[in-house]
Specification:
Number of strands of chain B: 11
Distance between the termini of chain A: 37 Å
Number of strands of chain A: 11
Strand content of chain A: over 45%
Strand content of chain B: over 45%
Number of helices of chain A: 0
Oligomer: heterodimer
Chain lengths: 114, 112
């Protein structure tokens, strides 16, 4: 079974631009969560989607948004990029949103903002 | 107080020894607990998850959960140099969400 895929793997953008990242969960998984990882803050939860609905949102500004499609694939968008948005963006896939389910991470998208 | 706390390390153990990694959490209602391993430059890889008090074993790994003490640990038996990585503890606070709260991670060094 294929794992979680994320595209692109690397991105370089400049301040003020916007970016869209994509995540395809494991086949059959319907829940996708997004995390930001930085050396200073560690792994922080961005948001969670299940059945095309955002179920939970972390403490990030409104410049960070996401969506999920009917095939469970998810995208996240960051508008008006800031230098501090440079990070590894990870998506995690699980069967459903609740309960005691394992979450599997994709390889991540490394975003650099210049 | 941080929601999930880990000693950042590094924790150094000789090859073949038992490595013990610890994690404490602040929310008494936390539901399930995850251990991830992350190699430098890679994404986190799930090692184990546990949600009932007691021990759970998988190969060389044993997760231990004590909800009364709000403490979860990971033991790695017969440690190998390839186990050298950062180990992340993650906690799911509510059962109706997939949101995980992560600790800062413990760096493990296994010396040949």
């Amino acid at each position: 079974k294929a794992g979680v895929t994320q595209t692109p793997r690397y991105l370089i953008k400049t301040r003020g631009q916007q970016v869209t990242l994509s995540c395809s969960p494991i086949s059959g998984h319907r829940s996708v969560s997004w995390y930001q990882q930085t050396p200073g803050q560690g792994l922080q939860f961005l948001f969670e989607y299940f059945s095309e609905t955002q179920r939970n949102k972390g403490n990030f500004p409104g410049r960070f948004s996401g969506r999920q499609f009917s095939n469970s694939r998810s995208e996240m968008n960051v508008s008006t990029l800031e230098l501090g948005d440079s990070a590894l963006y990870l998506c995690a896939s699980s069967l459903i949103a609740g309960g005691n389910n394992e979450q599997f991470f994709g390889p991540g998208t490394r975003l650099t903002v210049l | 107080q941080k929601e999930v706390e880990q000693n950042s390390g590094p924790l150094s153990v000789p090859e073949g020894a038992i490595a013990s990694l610890n994690c404490t959490y602040s929310d008494r209602g936390s539901q399930s607990f995850f251990w991830y391993r992350q190699y430098s430059g890679k994404s986190p890889e799930l090692i184990m998850f546990i949600y009932s008090n007691g021990d759970k074993e998988d190969g060389r790994f044993t997760a231990q959960l004590n909800k009364a003490s709000q403490y979860v640990s990971l033991l790695i038996r017969d440690s190998q140099p390839s186990d050298s990585a950062t180990y992340l503890c993650a906690v799911k606070i509510r059962s109706n969400t997939g949101k995980l709260i992560f600790g800062q991670g413990t760096t493990l060094q296994v010396k040949p």
